[in-house]
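Hi all, a correction to my earlier message: I attached the wrong file for Decapping nuclease. Here's the right sequence:
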Amino acid sequence: MDHHRSRRPFSGSHHRQSVYTRDRNDRKGRCDNSLLRPRNHHQWQSGSTPEQNPLTSQTLSTRKELYERDFPLYKQPVEVGCFSLDAQRRFFNDGRQMRYYVEPDKNPNFDLRDGYEDRYVKRDESVKEKLDHILRWILANRLKLKSKASSHALDFDFVTWRGHLTKLLTTPYETRDGWLLAVTKFKDTLYISEVETEAARRDRENRPEWNHKMMYWGYKFEQYMCADNAHGLPDSSGVVNTNEAFCTVVQTRLTDHKLLFSGEVDCRDKDPSVPPPACYVELKTSAEICTPKQRSNFHRFKLLKWWAQSFLPGVPRVVAGFRDRDGTVVSVDTFPIAKVSQLIKNEPNCWKPTVCMNFTCDFLSFLKRIATEDNPSVVYLVSWEPLKDVTYSVHRDSCFSFLPLWYVEAMGSCQDSHHQP
Ligand code: 0WD
Ligand code: CA
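and the right structure:
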């Protein structure tokens, strides 16, 4: 076939995954994920073939039983910087969008529906920003980021969004949504950027009106809970603009994987003596819990996502607004992340933090093993669907390439240029 012509041999004969050189785009210029089905697709059943050895296998199992071992080393995340996105989604290398947590009444009666029709500016979700904001932050802060000795490469194995890592942490327990991650090795760092799956795009484009409203409720809750400065009060008469964001950038290590990632933070405690990320507060809304069944589901499904998202950057607490069916917050509760494991421990068949972390650790090792070619235009497209193993395919100069030229050129401009495209 034509698009195998420029295929280059890989360094080892054990590379048995499919190799694509060029991808066809559909009429709208999107990458067509339906063309991703590889021909010589190897899907070894973990635990049932001699090729299950995790050190050589080209696939990775997500079965939770395989990850029930001791909790892996996860270093205390350290904030190395922050950035802001303004009402027009413009990047600023500072904390101007930081907001401050304001303690609410126990029974607040916030009307989350207020403003949906007339005071809501919604971010355009069809614009895919990929890692661009993080890359901009890296370029603006290169000097203060520790570089590897004798090179100007970053001293990180992985750069990504916190949200992508959250999806990895919850994968062994996920039964509904698969994911697609694009991975590129550039100057010894693996960059991980999400690609929207076909199913996710369909869902987004066909989202019913009630769903749009409920998404707004979450942002409206933030407005009721946050002030723009440490001594201010919330202004619920203002506009909700979801372009605006404050993002923390943290560094940490999961066993031998050095990570740099960024995540959006809702607000901070106004006490200036508590340093980030310990001062940060994650805000959530959830349906009011009225029955034991609802409580159990909350523990088994919602707390998993909340824990994974906040544990990663070291955000110590989630403040939840419980809403009735009409969108009125009837109570507010604080969930310290460190106490979540106690909350769920009497829940039969529940998720375990150690499984989430061990799977993620093994997944990152898997990426290091497969993504060997250091080239900014090569993408290892890693995909997963519930009940299946993680698989991948390789793409050169395709629509999946995501490291922008401005980043590649800026990073390549200082010595160590043998990897330049
Ligand atoms: O393009 C993409 N595929 C993604 C873009 C996926 C994930 C994130 N992003 C962007 C978001 O626009 C946002 O600026 O990255 C930033 C946040 O990154 P994150 O912290 O790594 O993402 P995550 O932990 O999934 O979400 C944190 C918050 C969400 O709060 P809740 O309480 O709902 O978890 O970021 C917001 C949201 O408030 N958020 C988004 N806002 C606009 N568009 C999006 C999104 N696609 N995803 C999360
Ligand atoms: Ca939130």
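Sorry for the mix-up. Confidence is low (pLDDT under 50) at residues 1-17, 21-29, 38-51, 416-421.
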